[in-house]
Design brief:
The radius of gyration is 23 Å and the shape is globular. Helix 2 (about 45-60) packs across helix 9 (about 205-215), helix 2 (about 45-60) crosses helix 10 (about 260-275) and helix 4 (about 95-105) packs parallel to helix 12 (about 300-320). It has twelve helices and ten strands. It is α/β, with parallel strands linked by helices. Helix content is about 45%, strand content about 20%. Helix 2 (about 45-60) links the parallel strand 1 and strand 2. It folds into two domains: about 30-125 and about 250-320, 3-Layer(aba) Sandwich (D-Maltodextrin-Binding Protein, domain 2), CATH 3.40.190.150; about 125-240, 3-Layer(aba) Sandwich (D-Maltodextrin-Binding Protein, domain 2). Bound molecules: aspartic acid. Aspartic acid binds next to helix 2, helix 7, helix 8 and strand 7.
């Protein structure tokens, strides 16, 4: 009697085990997902990451938290994720710095294109050249003349070598054939605080950090780094109006460490695409002047191609500028 009923029961039990195991793989995420931002909290990369995390969470049916691991122009946080386990629970939200770091850092101990899997590109953000409130020059032309004539008096804040603000500052100094004193911060959130307090003079930063301060009249704004004028700042000239070819957009990508299973990458890719479509995400990005990436870039393959193309674009420019960090 006992033997008769035991066999079918064992079959049911083993079928159940199979179902539970395959269910576990499709049940990702089973615990909170952490997005690492490689700059200080309260800055432009952080604000986009936090808005994205909030918009992705319901599509992942889970919790998404943001952690800031700042330092060395974003390379400390990027390395943390490059060396994390590829289980889908530690992700990186980073910008153009992923394409510039390999040329800027002689001893970079991770390879952006090999150690990380792009999930999708999210936004492209123009920068603005701004100054402390008490800066004298009235417009971009006058500012550039003033900087050329007073280079020993002026300092330029940035978020460390490899940051977007560093890259923009490099372009400015090389166009003016001038070397300015640079003051590195853990992110442009704290750099902005120093600028508002008049401790530093100039900062080139994403509109995702500068829009509120410019509109509130708390800083002076001189230019945008987009090709043409921006809808949010119709009075600001493009940098290219004075320095031909000065054009830079700060694209942002979500990454997972290498080794992350393809099915997990696919779940994240879908959640990212759905999050970008959320009205709350889209309207916040519009308000901050961030442009949503085209659909083909919101994919793992599209973001991978973007990282490769931008690395090839910036490496020779940086090598020609002969700027290195160890
Ligand atoms: N905008 C910064 C940069 O210069 C980084 C940040 O604080 O988000 O790269």
């Amino acid at each position: 009697m006992f033997r008769k009923s035991w066999r079918p029961l064992a079959a049911v039990a083993s079928a159940l085990t199979v179902a539970l195991v395959s269910g576990a793989a499709s049940a990702y995420p089973e615990k909170p997902v952490t997005i690492v931002v490689p700059f200080a909290a309260g800055g432009p990369t952080d604000v986009v990451a936090r808005t994205l995390a909030q918009a992705m969470a319901p599509h992942l049916k889970g919790t998404v938290v943001v952690e800031n691991t700042a330092g060395a122009g974003g390379t400390v946080g990027a390395r943390r994720v490059a060396q994390a386990s590829g289980d889908g629970y530690t992700l990186l939200f980073h910008h153009i710095g992923m394409a510039t770091a390999p040329a800027l850092y002689r001893k970079l101990d991770f390879k952006p294109q090999e150690d990380l899997i792009p999930i999708g590109a999210v936004v492209d953000v123009p920068m603005t050249l701004i100054s402390k409130p008490a800066m004298g020059p009235a417009n971009l032309k006058d500012l550039l003349t003033y900087v050329r004539a007073n280079k020993e008096k002026i300092n330029l804040a940035n978020a460390g070598i490899g940051s977007a603000s560093h890259l923009c500052g490099l372009l400015l100094q090389s166009a003016l054939k001038t070397e300015l004193t640079t003051v590195p911060f853990q992110g442009t959130g704290p750099a902005m605080t120093a600028l508002l307090g008049g401790q530093v003079d100039l900062l080139c930063d994403q509109t995702t950090n500068t829009t509120g301060q410019i509109k509130g009249g708390r800083v002076k704004a001189y230019a945008v780094t987009s090709k043409g004028k921006l809808a949010n700042f119709p009075d600001l000239p493009p940098m290219a109006s004075e320095i031909p070819g000065f054009e830079v957009g700060i694209w942002h990508v979500l990454y997972a460490p290498k080794g992350t299973p393809a099915n997990v990458v696919a779940v994240l890719e879908k959640a990212l695409q759905a999050a970008i479509k959320e009205p709350a995400f889209a309207s916040k990005m519009k308000e901050l002047g961030a442009e949503i990436m085209p659909a083909e870039r919101q994919t793992s393959a599209g973001a991978k191609a973007l990282l490769a193309a931008e690395t090839s674009k910036w490496s020779p420019i940086i090598q020609a500028a002969k700027v290195y960090a160890d």
